[in-house]
Design brief:
Order of helices and strands: EHHEEEEHEEEEHHEHHEEEHHEHEHH
CATH topology of the largest domain: Aminopeptidase
Structural class: alpha+beta
Helix content: 40-55%
């Protein structure tokens, strides 16, 4: 089969092929057009990101693979990355309907060399958070010299909720959840609500942002929500797509108080657990985040979804529920001398992460400095 590869810099130029690829091919929810276009309109433009789309089609002009890349200058180096930044938990191409078998290493190397020649000039290539597989296919970008970078936890939802819960959650944990819920009910009626309108989705999303910001401050993590484009990204997606169910916005209430919130996504048969938050100051002792998580899993079981995806990260509560753990991979390579310093800096950061105590100290100092620089009220 012959293929043709072209490079574009406009969403409009690739929209039709993109929609064909995501409808009839294989991709994660994070590679859908609505997610990445909204990300670019709010965050990408704020970060001076240049989108670059590499589209490979077959001899019948059907999309074979679509790679949404970006170029951004970081510390003087022009960096080629996947489009979507840190807010996108998995980075990968879309495999179109013409992609009907795994791409072997030799064929991918030919395609990759061709792609690099077609792309604008860059100093370094840095692809992170890449999964091994995309649907039923191996991720062709695993043919690059990748290294382990992060973890992703999922759990299969193949049973009714009560059966699933009793199998996955130890009896002691189930009893503790019941006890905390009873105590929460003593303060007010407890209810679980999913946003059914743009207005309700925006209200819950705004509360999630406040709760998340408060938690970031308490834990010394850089609060991205002090910068308005990041707030607008989540609120815009919620306003546009919550009513359809594509973006899933929910909350656990005690009386009129939102004690826990969640902002996530549904794509095909997979639920993405993305932004959980809770009122730690007023209701933390009731474990409202855990209670909301259980409500979300029950909802997914009742809806017939097949996978609950905890997305990127290795937090302990994820390991309690998950039955499958997937590695995520990074590829980084300097293609010009100017990119070597970028690679060196990245290697130093990775070494620091391997020393937890040092990592915590440096992260707090870096985040404090970044917070003062980026804060826009």
């Amino acid at each position: 089969m012959g293929t043709v590869t072209k490079v574009y810099d406009s969403f409009d130029d690739v929209e039709d092929q993109w929609l064909q690829a995501q409808a009839g091919g294989s991709c994660y929810g994070f590679q859908c057009l609505d997610w990445l276009k909204t990300w670019y309109n709010h965050i990408g433009q704020y970060l001076n990101v240049r989108p670059v789309f590499v589209v490979t089609t077959d001899d019948r002009n059907r999309p074979w693979m679509l790679s949404p890349f970006s170029i951004r200058t970081v510390n003087g180096s022009r960096v080629l990355s996947w489009l979507g930044g840190d807010e996108t938990d998995f980075h990968a191409p879309l495999l179109g309907p013409a992609y009907d078998h795994d791409c072997d290493a030799a064929a991918f190397q030919v395609l990759w060399r061709q792609t690099i020649r077609l792309l604008p000039r860059v100093d370094v290539v840095h692809f992170d958070k890449q999964p091994e597989c995309i649907g039923d296919f191996a991720n062709p970008f695993m043919h690059l010299p990748v290294r382990h970078h992060a973890m992703n936890h999922t759990v299969a939802l193949a049973e009714p909720w009560m059966v699933f819960r009793d199998r996955r959650l130890p009896a002691k944990a189930r009893a503790d959840s019941r006890r905390r819920r009873r105590r929460l009910e003593e303060k007010g009626a407890v209810s679980f609500r999913i946003a059914a309108s743009a207005a309700e989705a925006d209200t819950i999303t705004a509360t999630m942002i406040r709760q998340k910001s408060r938690r970031y401050i308490q834990t010394g993590v850089l609060d991205m929500f002090t910068v308005s484009p990041f707030r607008r990204f989540y609120r815009s997606l919620a306003e546009q797509y919550a009513a359809s169910g594509r973006i899933h916005v929910s909350a656990l209430y005690c009386g009129n108080d939102m004690v826990a919130t969640h902002w996530g996504m549904v794509h095909r048969d997979r639920f993405y657990h993305i932004m959980p938050a809770y009122d730690a100051d007023g209701y933390g002792r009731f474990a409202p985040g855990r209670l909301l998580l259980e409500q979300l899993m029950e909802w997914c079981c009742n809806k017939g979804l097949r996978v609950f995806d905890f997305t990127v990260g290795d937090e302990g509560y994820k390991r309690l529920w998950c039955d499958t753990t997937y590695p995520l991979y990074e590829y980084i390579e300097a293609v010009r001398d100017r990119g070597r310093l970028y690679v060196l800096r990245n290697d130093v950061v990775n070494k620091i992460r391997e020393a937890p105590a040092l990592h915590r100290v440096i992260t707090r100092l870096r985040n404090k400095r970044a917070q003062n620089t980026r804060r826009d009220g």
